[in-house]
Amino acid sequence: MKIVLCKGQFMGPISGADETIVTYATQLRAAGHQASVLLMYPPAADDPYYERLRGAGVHVHSVASTGVQTSLSAARKLAAGLLRAVPPSQRLVRRRAQKISSRIAARYARECRDYFARCGADVVHVMTPDPSAAVMIEAARASGLPVLYQELGTPYHPPAFAAYYEQFVSALPHCSELAALSPSLIRQCREQLPYQLPLSVLPVIAEDLLAGRGARAGSPGGGVTFGFAARLEHLKGPLVLVEAFASVCGKFADSSLKIAGIGSEQQRAVARAEAAGVAGRCDFLGAYTDVEEKSAFMRSLDVFVLPSLTEGTPNCIVEAMSCALPVIASEVGGVGDMITPETGLLVPPGEPAALADAMSRLAADRNLRERMGRAARRRYEEFFSPQAVLPLMLSTYRRIAASRRPASANATPRVGPDLHPWGSHTVTPEPYAAPAPCPQIITPSTDRLDMET
């Protein structure tokens, strides 16, 4: 099949959405399908996600100029600085950024439509609810191509981003189908999104980080090494993690914490570790840039921890499971679909004491860690490995490609648990009026905001 995977831009160096689109594209390519990536704005020549795609032979096309991307990056840094310096300006800054981002994306509607008209794709697969995605959806529809929109998180969440969805959802009627990352997230999409399209599960894929790289080493000397890998930002909970780890250190003198990532909370996390007297047992490693570094990091751990305040189904959890690691994570978004009592522990978000209790429980019981790690590895193989997800992905693409038009109320996705354990979690909507074809000149709303600005 010929699939075009679309996103506004790469937001690296640590982006779950970027990781998802790159992994989907490279795995489709490895399976012999024609997968390409369309970006609204060009990536940097040394962007790690771009380099991975090039290395896998995946063509990457962008429609805007390099100068526009440079200007957007500068504006994003300025906006981020204002938000940190003057928190009360948050709503005003985001609204202003929303208008600017929408106007810029709208300029490239015709270029997107021209690209889709000549690309010969069977399906256009769009991710992230931002102005660029809305333009791409409408352009693909105007070119007669069926569109799959994939929601990578929870609609209208966190609350600060609700306004972004209020504008983006106007593009959803031009999609043939919506996908979510897990059954719980399907239910949330069904309840919260205003347009009743068919919904189906399309999980994340993670490369097997143990394959050909040897067994996981874990902590030397019998101690327990906890690990965290994500952006060091408030919503990922790094300060909660450091506080919980300080409590664990009082009980387990040989424990340590490795943190992979960068972000706005990095300095505060380091300061919190120093204030708690555990800085010498916390290793802030920065962001890894390739699969080998990622594998080496995960294989050096005994337990993976992700105390996020909001999530979809995080790639880093799947990567940890591929390395046979037990996982401790907040019960938010679709995380509860990923982690079972056999594979790890779920804790309430934002509660350091509960997180410390879970970490202490695994630190105290090596046999439990090993049992959970083995179960996590089996769950990875069954739910998130390329062998598990690709058949479901291809079935979804074929179903959408067969229609060549927005799905009707009578369309019943032919997907079942024989393809994937979550394959039967599909929602067929109530009847709805299909939208009229997009006009030849696409002018999206100028009141939309890039979610990742």
Summary, kept brief:
With about 450 residues, this protein is α/β, with parallel strands linked by helices. The protein contains 16 helices and 13 strands.
Describe what this molecule looks like in 3D:
- The two termini are 33 Å apart.
- The protein is α/β, with parallel strands linked by helices.
- Residues 405-413 and 430-453 have low confidence and may be disordered.
- β8, α9 (238-249) and β9 form a beta-alpha-beta unit.
- Helix content is 42%, strand content 13%.
- It has 2 domains: 2-205 and 387-403, Rossmann fold, CATH 3.40.50; 220-383, 3-Layer(aba) Sandwich (Rossmann fold).
- The strands form 2 sheets. The chain has a 7-stranded parallel beta sheet, sandwiched between helices.
- It is built from 16 helices and 13 strands.
- The protein has helices at residues 16-30, 48-55, 66-85, 90-106, 109-119, 131-142, 162-168, 183-192, 238-249, 266-275, 291-299, 315-322, 335-338, 352-363, 366-383, 386-403; strands spanning 2-7, 34-39, 59-62, 123-127, 147-150, 177-180, 199-201, 225-229, 256-260, 282-286, 303-306, 327-330, 344-347.
- α1 runs parallel beside α2, α3 (66-85) runs antiparallel to α4 (90-106) and α9 crosses α14 (352-363).
- The longest helix has 20 residues, at 66-85.
